[in-house]
Design goal:
Blueprint lengths: L3 H11 L4 E17 L2 E22 L2 E9 L7 H13 L34 H11 L4 E17 L4 E17 L6 E9 L7 H14 L3 E2 L4 E7 L1 H13 L3 H5 L6 E2 L2 E2 L11 E4 L33 E5 L2 E2 L6 H7 L10 E4 L6 H6 L3 E5 L2 E8 L4 E6 L3 E5 L2 E6 L2 E5 L1 H7 L2 E2 L3 E3 L11 E3 L2 E11 L4
């Protein structure tokens, strides 16, 4: 393909707008699937997506914006995309988030001309070899491994030049044992940057342990139960909380972070010193350290392209500290500008493992997987969803059987208020939101009264 950096420079040179922004992302992806203890499909691909954002100024903080995206790799089409972007800007309504474009500060010119990061099917060689041992067992294994490397180039007419290569990978394994009404199903998964750190034997051992727990079946009614949430389940709930932390919505009274006359910043949620934060430099969970967006939303602004991402404590030692503010929204409400994170970490618990917490449980549930999570009430951030692939009964410090599935109704904000114990933080893979958000580190949480609102017939 034509070099991405050259696409940026040619598009900027072709622009006749007052200002222009060009973003190019090259994606190298590889995937591997297996079902019924045999490999089924594998493949790799290379693609490009790029966008030209044109800006016509009617004043320093008044502008019209047009953004056109393309997947073409033909350099002859650059001019046509630029012209289309300009036409879209000319006919656009004034942008509510208009701000001056950023000047260069943290440029990545040293890596600008480097080739994009890459992956190929061989990245799964070790995983496939170790999975084959599991295929020789009696449990039926299904799953998917995905690796992608997205390299982004960002250039603006004000001179900003930034580049970053983002590797993202994950492995999910579903195990099944038995047939019919005796069918047991369990799930394990892990995120990774390069697959060199994936402990496949450990994943298979945990999967087998969960299937062993299912030998005994227990039917329980709906109700409130002391519940242990492993890190993966905690991640799915905290991600939804993070997605709801838009500053404008809080100020305008639309979200669970609103209160009369302002926001809930400064409100204490828990006496446990839990800190929920995003950090582009978090070890093993690094992400692109700058804004690169082809369109504006309540969380991101095209005028902030190139803005550096820094660590943000959304909740600090139990207290709500920050919300998401693009620069224009921050200026409007007198708040610091913050960039939404592409990782999420929850720290401040103890050093207990999930097994330690199980051992201290007299009677409760172990809720390993959530799915089909949806918002019921944005004013309280009440979510509903289903359990899947493993709800287990804990009695006298041991897992004694598998329990029927439930529908739950809970707010992650309320859960943080009611946490009775938090364990050690560990890197984990969310089950529900893995396709959109993989970089998380969470502790297991003990909730004294998790609300299972009804019994689910899902199997």
């Amino acid at each position: 393909m034509f070099p991405a950096g050259t696409v940026v420079e040619r598009a900027l040179a072709a622009s006749k707008a007052d200002e222009a922004i060009v973003i190019v992302t090259d994606a190298h992806e590889a995937s591997l699937r297996w079902a019924g203890n045999s490999m089924t499909t594998n493949g790799s691909s290379i693609s490009r997506e790029w966008a030209v954002i044109s800006v016509f100024r009617d004043g320093p903080n008044t502008a019209r914006v047009g953004s056109i995206s393309s997947t073409s790799v033909d350099p002859a089409e650059i001019d046509a995309v630029v012209r289309a972007s300009e036409e879209a800007a000319r006919t656009a309504a004034p942008a509510r988030d208009a701000m001056p474009l950023l000047e260069p500060t943290d440029d990545d010119t040293a890596t600008w001309d480097q080739a994009p990061g890459a992956t190929e099917i061989d990245v799964f060689a070790g995983l496939a070899r170790e999975l084959s041992i599991g295929f020789d067992g009696t449990d039926r294994l299904y799953g998917f491994a995905h690796h992608q490397v997205h390299t982004t180039w960002l250039g603006t007419s004000t001179g900003v030049r930034r580049r970053f290569s983002q590797p993202t990978g994950s492995v999910e394994i579903n195990g099944k044992r038995g047939e019919g009404k005796d069918l047991a199903s369990a799930w394990v998964g892990v995120g990774t940057a390069d697959f060199t750190d994936v402990d496949t034997p450990g994943l298979l051992a945990e999967l087998s342990r969960r299937l062993d727990w299912s030998k005994r079946r227990v039917e329980l009614p709906a109700g409130r139960y002391e519940t242990l949430l492993p890190p993966s389940s905690v991640a799915d709930l905290m991600i939804y909380l993070a997605w709801s932390m838009e500053g404008r919505g809080a100020h305008e009274g639309h979200t669970a972070f609103s209160r009369a006359g302002g926001t809930r910043i400064g409100e204490r949620l828990s006496d446990i010193p839990l800190t929920l934060y995003s950090d582009p430099n978090a070890s093993g969970l690094e992400y692109r350290p700058f804004v690169a967006t082809p369109s504006s939303s309540e969380s991101l602004s095209v005028f902030d392209n190139g803005l550096s991402a820094r660590r943000v404590d959304w909740i600090g030692e139990g207290v709500i500290e920050s919300l998401v503010y693009p620069r224009a929204t921050a200026a409007e409400f007198g708040a610091p500008a913050t960039v939404p994170g592409e990782n999420l970490l929850l720290t401040g618990g103890g050093d207990a493992s999930l097994d330690d917490m199980i051992a201290r449980t007299e009677r409760g549930l172990l809720l390993t997987c959530l799915w089909y999570i949806r918002e019921v009430d944005p004013a309280t951030l009440l979510l509903t969803g289903l359990t899947r692939d493993g709800v287990y009964l804990v009695e006298d410090g041991q897992v004694t059987g598998a329990v029927n599935n439930f529908r739950f109704n809970e707010s992650p904000l309320d859960l943080l208020r009611r946490v009775a114990e938090a364990g050690a933080t560990e890197i984990t893979l969310p089950r529900e939101w893995k396709d959109w958000f993989t970089r998380t580190a969470m502790p297991a949480l003990r909730i004294p009264d998790f609300h299972m609102s009804s019994v689910s017939q899902a199997t």
